[in-house]
Amino acid sequence: MVRRRIPRPSELAPLLRPAPFTLDRTAARLARASSIGDLRELARRRAPRAVFDYTDGAAEDEVSLRRAREVWASVEFSPTVLTDVSRVDTGREILGGRSSLPFALAPTGFTRMMHTEGERAVAAVAARAGIPYTLSTMGSTTIEGVAEAGRGGRHWFQLYLWRDRSVAHELVSRAQEAGYDTLLLTVDTPVGGNRRRDARNGLSIPPALSLRTFVDGARHPRWWFDLLTTEPLTFESLAAGGGSPYEVINRVFDPALTLDDVTWLRGAWPGKLVVKGVQSVTDARRVADAGADGVLLSNHGGRQLDRAPVPAELIEPVVQELGDDAEVLVDTGITHGGDVVAAVALGARAALVGRAYLYGLMAGGEAGVSRAVEILRAEVERTMQLLGVTRVDDLRPEHARLRSATGGHHHPNERRPGTAPRR
């Protein structure tokens, strides 16, 4: 029989530990976020629906994005125990420079639409964190403005080739003069993907006050206040005009982009050159032979061709094909530091994350981006410790494998039909 008693005050004191009080409601919300998924929920509540969907959505039925996330979730780690993991080194050389983490922040278009601090906030966080940040040609902050905001950091520039090649030449020159060391040429966007969420929401760039957006704006007054009381929201690196994202892309991007343009850009750019949007072993070999220093395996975050190849599944055969000829990077669907660790174990030099930090930006501006990087950093460190690995450079294929849909395993050292042997 249980005997009950009245607890002493001294016994209650350790149990009564209220959370630290702060007047900064945004800081309090961000502190409670323990995953990128938590930041996504905060972003969904704080941003207008059209803005959130522009970030969160993908093309057509969004199969490409869903499959990418499912493959990262299918990773099975193989840990080693009885290893001293009291200290881990998460740094790595990426494209000729040191990064404190094995990932970079990916280029995202029109970032100030998510939060008025936009690309400046992201660049500042990346500089403090010691990781590269990639400004998009479709960015809403100038090349020079990002370099200033992220002073002391490492800057990459993502380039689309326009019908007017003189525009590209000018942007490349400006990036070089501003100290950018790496150029990412995106090649998977000859035309705009069919992003149904944007069409349903009537999204335009810049956002327009239609009846739909006005009603939605009533639930997000802070976002509209920031939009209307700060500098106009425009594409800072080009004069693209307005319209839907699909219309803007089709009006200015060049669908006649070929391998000759990669060769031309290699001759015009003195820094590192990465081709972004590679989705086959054959194309990886072609761009490496054309002089690319790196290939970024990417299906544009699932925002272009739906049911495209899953980038994570391409790492192993592309690394086998290229060997030391070019560095292999990967993006799409990465929402956890464990995904980054898996990418490196499978053979990638580094990963790029986009939506993850945009959720943070929508949730809390620069502080939200910082929280996203903190979460990913902690997940990378913890995953490495639990794997028994103390250096990113020590990650190997035996540490991670992709489980097949039938529950079996595919080990990265096993050759798949139609893939080249490791060089």
UniProtKB/TrEMBL annotation:
Residues engaged in binding glyoxylate: 54, 160, 195, 300, 303
Chain segments carrying region Disordered: 401-423
FMN hydroxy acid dehydrogenase domain segment(s): 28-405
UniProt entry keywords in alphabetical sequence: Flavoprotein, FMN, Oxidoreductase
SUPFAM superfamilies recorded: FMN-linked oxidoreductases (SSF51395)
Positions with a binding annotation for FMN: 107-109, 136, 158, 186, 276, 298, 354-355
EC numbers: 1.1.2.3
Domain of life: Bacteria
Positions of the catalytic residues: 300
Cofactors demanded by this protein: FMN
The keyword Electron transport is assigned to this record: no
A GO molecular-function descriptor: L-lactate dehydrogenase (cytochrome) activity
InterPro entries: Aldolase_TIM, Alpha-hydoxy_acid_DH_FMN, FMN-dep_DH, FMN_HAD, FMN_hydac_DH_AS
Similarity comment text for this entry: Belongs to the FMN-dependent alpha-hydroxy acid dehydrogenase family.
Cited PANTHER family: 2-HYDROXYACID OXIDASE 1, S -2-HYDROXY-ACID OXIDASE-RELATED
Official protein name in the record: L-lactate dehydrogenase (Cytochrome)
Annotated source species: Pseudonocardia alni
